[in-house]
Design a protein that fits this description.
This protein is an alpha/beta fold. The protein has seven helices and seven strands. Helix 2 packs parallel to helix 7 and helix 4 (88-102) packs across helix 5 (115-126).
């Protein structure tokens, strides 16, 4: 995993960023510019200083099998099965406990893009004692992934031309029917890093405020 700790007085909120399929621990910085975005926003007073934790959620051979539109759905189904078999959410829960022992953490938020949104939602359900805010960027979600804790705040961002926009919209409708606190934002964009780089600062602005 990659960890960034700003020069600021602890305790600090921590934000866990989960990549999608075909990603790695450096994806959020190399392609998403997460650390650079955070530094700029702190300097401009647009968000609180926070710890960024960017783990490798991809322990399987997708690094050697780049995802294309032709094999996207096949990869998603296979990835979902592997995620359950390897108990990825339990690993992320253990990671939270480890981070809490190393750093003085005030609050915890999770966010993920594409299939990383599914991981973020699962981790939030597994650790309602720790996770207060959940960011879903172009999420790929299942019907049974409703929040278990009614006090967690969700933020859903989808692109207007996003192939998985219907998944985020359906989740928004389910949250609305359940009267669960959340925000739903449609941005101009597609299922790519250009869109997710726009989502990240919007979510960061509220981390630690809820």
């Amino acid at each position: 995993m990659d960890i960034y700790v700003p020069e600021a007085q602890e305790p600090l909120p921590v934000l866990y960023l989960f990549h999608g399929i075909n990603g790695y621990e450096g994806s959020w910085q190399d392609q998403g510019g997460a650390v650079d975005t955070l530094r700029k926003m702190i300097a401009e007073g647009r968000c609180e200083p926070m710890i960024l934790v960017m783990p490798d959620c991809n322990k399987w051979p997708f690094k050697e099998r780049p995802v294309s539109h032709g094999n996207l759905w096949k990869c998603l189904m296979h990835y979902g099965r592997l995620s359950r078999e390897h108990e990825l959410e339990q690993s992320m829960s253990d990671l939270m406990d480890m981070i809490d022992t190393v750093y003085c953490v005030s609050s915890c938020a999770v966010a993920g893009l594409s299939d990383g949104g599914r991981i973020a939602a699962n981790v939030a359900n597994k650790r309602p004692d720790r996770v207060r805010q959940v960011g879903l960027f172009s999420p790929v979600l299942h019907r049974d992934q409703m929040p278990h804790d009614s006090t967690q705040l969700y933020a859903i961002y989808v692109g207007s031309d996003d192939i998985f926009a219907p998944s985020g919209k359906r989740f928004h409708r389910r949250l609305s029917r359940a009267k669960h606190p959340h925000e739903y934002v449609v941005l101009k964009g597609n299922h790519n890093w250009r869109m997710w780089r726009r989502c990240l600062p919007l979510f960061m602005e509220g981390v630690g405020q809820y």
